[in-house]
Specification:
Length: 113
């Protein structure tokens, strides 16, 4: 399965996306966007910035897990990773986003209620 972005609508009506690796695991999650078109612009920003290593910032959350954020040229966060037990996992996550995001397809996920 190819890497892909999935756009979903939250219960509050806003939109968000995930970047999934070839194995189906979520490797990056977005913020909430007011519209689907804004979420698609966010995806374009991820695709544009993913291959630039200076756009990643390594951090540690309150639980002591390592994670990273991907920032746009204006320093706004455009994606956040999951938490990793060690920096090696986090670095692998960055490599995966860098490798997969530029060529990932985009699909809408429709959640039936």
């Amino acid at each position: 399965m190819a890497a892909r972005f999935q756009i979903q609508q939250a219960r509050n009506g806003k939109y968000y996306f995930h970047l999934l690796a070839n194995n189906g695991e979520i490797i990056l999650s977005s913020q909430m966007y007011a519209s689907k078109s804004s979420a698609k612009k966010g995806i374009l920003s991820v695709q544009t910035n993913a291959s630039d290593s200076s756009r990643y910032e390594a951090l540690v959350n309150k639980a002591g897990e390592h994670y990273f954020v991907l920032k746009a040229k204006n320093s706004q966060i455009i994606g956040t990773s999951e938490g990793y037990a060690a920096t090696t996992g986090m670095k692998s996550g960055i490599k995966s986003v860098s490798r997969n995001a530029p060529k990932a397809i985009t699909e809408d996920i429709i959640v039936k209620t």
